Amino acid sequence: MVNSKPETTRPKFRLFVRYTFHDNASKVSPRNVSFIEHLLRKGTRQIESYEDPGVKDCWVSEEMIQWNEMWKKGPKRTLTDP
CA–CA separation, 82 vs 77, rounded Å? Predict the structure, then answer.
């Protein structure tokens, strides 16, 4: 889906997809099958709508940008970590 978008907006689509997946995954228990199925249906519909050739750009919030910066830096390590 991302590769079908204009080169200039691909990073925004990539960030949007990664952040949305991470955000949803952190909210659900692995045992909550009905909620996971709901998220799969919702995600499928969302991807289908973004695959439309008329969709050229997406909105990325400041929170998504901050999360991306933290994600790029990796996990914080302490002095006791190997």
Answer: 9
Boundaries of domain holding 57? 2-73
In a domain, 23, yes or no: yes
Alpha helix (H) residue ranges in the chain: 10-25, 33-50, 62-73
Residue appearing with tokens 């519909």? 45
Does residue 80 lie within any of the structural domains? no
d(CA 20, CA 1) in angstroms, rounded, equals 15
Structure confidence by residue, pLDDT tens digits, 8-56: 999 999 999 999 999 998 989 999 999 999 999 999 999 999 999 999 9
Q: Is pTM, for the whole model, over 0.70?
A: yes
Provide the number of structural domains found in the chain: 1
